[in-house]
């Protein structure tokens, strides 16, 4: 039998931002770049090279492979700092600045918490904290990996797995969320959120009316 | 979404090579042009063009389509990488083509898009007609097309649908003759659509323009992850890009309009065509170049897309439509709606 599908850690962040974006990337297997994704790639150019550094007594691993068999997660951490006693401390690099809107920041928190859970499962050490590093503002934001966040990770992983198994693309965002998030999304043109079901059905019925 | 350039190489005995990250065009070992690769979405070569293997690798890597056509613009080959994308989408496409109700529905939409757009060509012609008589004839033909459009909803089989389409096309081509300015009519009269080979100058231009639209529709479908051979209105036949032909129907009137513009502005004249023994008519090489340039310029025109409520360069509309097609194939709640200009 096939083992359950492994879900990339990045998918959690995509799902929280927009389930349809997650479906387009992980189900439809498409990806388009825009200025935001290109900035993101530039930020990751440094941390994507595997390697180890030691600075001020802290061992730093870059591009460390991560996994969590029980949750079926796989991925890679930008940076993991190993603190005294070998406790891992994940740091995820993001472009932009620290003052992200709370709902956008929550997407990053989820991804970081999932990294912490992977590291905990891999090393046996309890991981209660990590940080997001924002390249534009050069600031770190410490994130506590709470029970609530851990539950959210498990729940999100389940939702994604169900979506992938169904093969069905989730609908586009609507309302205020769409207004805020779609314009920054590189998949806007593929997603075509403006062409709603209702709009398509109306346009289809007008198609056979010569004067419509 | 950015409309990148397509490089059309029409000059015979041209050689293309990679030069750092630019494409270098050489004629008789002399550099004629350098194009940065990041400005290109496709390279289309007519007839005798040579190109280097490193360039082919680089085009494949950058996702830049390489298309080889014969001298008359007929498709020969394209350079393509590994099959990727969404296998579920292709599976849905194959399933849909086996479903008669869906096939009829999709075919109906394609024909409707074509008839609606052709009708607009005639209506505009009627408004701009110099003589009252001709305006009346054009208006009557446009009314006939309106009747064909309404009749589509009653068509219960593909054969009936194709019959309506054929009759509508016949009426439309009668009207098209009246849209040629009177001084050019002696040279550019057509007696219906002829092909392989085209038998008059108008048809020679249409064949050439249709083959370019066809290539763009085919690329758009491939970019959307669809199989361009598996279509609905057009029957499956080995070697035929049936879905690309389906998608192209709604764009034919755009090609027709461009042909009319070229004739009516005097950009093409009788001398731009070769009349072959037996009656076939072909475009002269320089005229082909003029048509390609006009087509490229036309693709830059911003068009309002009613469904997306935004303006899109005409050259990207096939991609927008291919994505809507992909959606209709995957999603029961999203019927396909062809592009109809307002």
TrEMBL record, chain A:
Keyword Iron-sulfur: yes
EC number: 3.1.12.1
EC top class, as a word: hydrolase
One Pfam family here: Cas_Cas4
Annotated ranges, domain DUF83: 10-192
GO molecular function: exonuclease activity; iron-sulfur cluster binding; metal ion binding
The record's free-text note on cofactor binding: Mg(2+) or Mn(2+) required for ssDNA cleavage activity.
UniProtKB keywords: Antiviral defense, Exonuclease, Hydrolase, Iron, Iron-sulfur, Manganese, Metal-binding, Nuclease
Gene Ontology biological-process entries: defense response to virus
Co-factor requirement: iron-sulfur cluster; [4Fe-4S] cluster; Mg(2+); Mn(2+)
Function: CRISPR (clustered regularly interspaced short palindromic repeat) is an adaptive immune system that provides protection against mobile genetic elements (viruses, transposable elements and conjugative plasmids). CRISPR clusters contain sequences complementary to antecedent mobile elements and target invading nucleic acids. CRISPR clusters are transcribed and processed into CRISPR RNA (crRNA).
Family label: Belongs to the CRISPR-associated exonuclease Cas4 family.
PANTHER family associated with the record: CRISPR-ASSOCIATED EXONUCLEASE CAS4 (PTHR36531), DNA REPLICATION ATP-DEPENDENT HELICASE_NUCLEASE DNA2 (PTHR36531:SF6)
Protein name according to UniProt: CRISPR-associated exonuclease Cas4
Top-level taxonomy: Bacteria, Pseudomonadati, Pseudomonadota, Betaproteobacteria, Burkholderiales
TrEMBL record, chain B:
Domain of life assignment: Bacteria
Native organism: Albidiferax ferrireducens (strain ATCC BAA-621 / DSM 15236 / T118)
Entry protein name: CRISPR-associated endonuclease Cas1
Name of the gene: cas1
Complex formation: Homodimer, forms a heterotetramer with a Cas2 homodimer.
Cofactor field: Mg(2+); Mn(2+)
GO BP annotations listed: defense response to virus; maintenance of CRISPR repeat elements
Annotated InterPro entries: Cas1, CRISPR-assoc_Cas1, CRISPR-assoc_Cas1_C, CRISPR-assoc_Cas1_DVULG, CRISPR-assoc_Cas1_N
Molecular function terms, GO-annotated: DNA binding; DNA endonuclease activity; hydrolase activity; metal ion binding
Enzyme class: hydrolase
């Amino acid at each position: 039998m096939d083992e359950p599908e492994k879900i990339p850690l990045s998918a959690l962040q995509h799902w929280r931002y927009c389930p349809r974006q997650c479906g387009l990337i992980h189900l439809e297997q498409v990806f388009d770049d825009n200025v935001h994704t290109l900035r993101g790639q530039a930020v990751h150019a440094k941390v994507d090279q595997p390697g180890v550094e030691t600075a001020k007594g802290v061992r730093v691993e870059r591009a460390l492979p991560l996994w969590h068999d029980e949750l079926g997660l796989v991925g890679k951490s930008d940076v993991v700092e190993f603190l005294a006693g070998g406790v891992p401390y994940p740091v995820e690099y993001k472009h932009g600045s620290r003052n992200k809107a709370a709902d956008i920041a929550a997407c990053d928190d989820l991804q970081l918490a999932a990294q912490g859970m992977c590291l905990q499962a891999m090393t046996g050490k309890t991981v209660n904290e990590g940080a997001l590093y924002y390249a534009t503002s050069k600031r770190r934001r410490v994130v506590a990996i709470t029970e609530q966040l851990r539950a959210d990770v498990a729940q999100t992983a389940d939702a994604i797995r169900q979506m992938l198994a169904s093969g069905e693309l989730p609908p586009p965002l609507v309302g205020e969320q769409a207004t805020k998030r779609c314009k920054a999304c590189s998949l806007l043109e593929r997603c075509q959120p403006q062409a709603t079901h209702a709009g398509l059905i109306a346009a289809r019925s007008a198609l056979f009316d010569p004067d419509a | 979404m950015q409309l990148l350039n397509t490089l059309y190489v029409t000059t015979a005995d041209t050689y293309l090579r990679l030069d750092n990250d630019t494409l270098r065009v050489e004629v008789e070992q002399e550099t004629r042009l350098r194009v940065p690769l990041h400005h290109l979405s496709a390279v289309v070569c007519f007839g005798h063009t040579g190109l280097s293997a490193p360039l082919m690798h680089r085009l494949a890597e950058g996702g830049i389509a390489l298309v080889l056509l014969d001298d008359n613009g007929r498709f020969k080959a394209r350079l393509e990488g590994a099959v990727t994308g969404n296998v579920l989408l292709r599976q849905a496409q194959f399933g849909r083509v086996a479903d008669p109700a869906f096939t009829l529905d999709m075919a109906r939409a394609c024909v409707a898009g074509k008839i609606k757009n052709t009708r607009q060509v005639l209506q505009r012609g009627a408004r701009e007609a110099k003589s009252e008589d001709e305006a009346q004839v054009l208006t009557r033909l446009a009314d006939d097309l309106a009747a064909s459009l309404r009749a589509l909803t009653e068509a219960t089989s593909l054969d009936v649908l194709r019959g309506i389409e054929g009759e509508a096309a016949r009426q439309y081509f009668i009207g098209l003759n009246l849209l040629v300015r009177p001084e050019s009519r002696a040279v550019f009269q057509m007696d219906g659509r002829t092909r392989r080979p085209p038998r008059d100058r108008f048809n020679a231009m249409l064949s050439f323009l249709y083959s370019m639209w066809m290539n763009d529709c085919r690329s758009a479908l491939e970019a959307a992850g669809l199989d361009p051979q598996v279509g609905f209105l057009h029957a499956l036949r080995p070697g035929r890009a049936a879905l690309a032909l389906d998608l192209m129907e709604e764009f034919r009137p755009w090609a027709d309009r461009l042909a009319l513009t070229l004739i009516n502005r005097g950009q093409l004249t009788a001398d731009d065509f070769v009349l072959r023994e037996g009656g076939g008519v072909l475009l002269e090489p320089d005229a082909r170049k003029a048509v390609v340039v006009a087509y490229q310029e036309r693709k830059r025109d911003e068009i309002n897309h009613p469904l997306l409520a935004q303006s899109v360069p005409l050259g990207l509309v096939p991609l927008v439509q291919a994505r809507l097609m992909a959606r209709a194939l995957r999603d029961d709640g999203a019927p396909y709606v062809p592009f109809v200009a307002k």
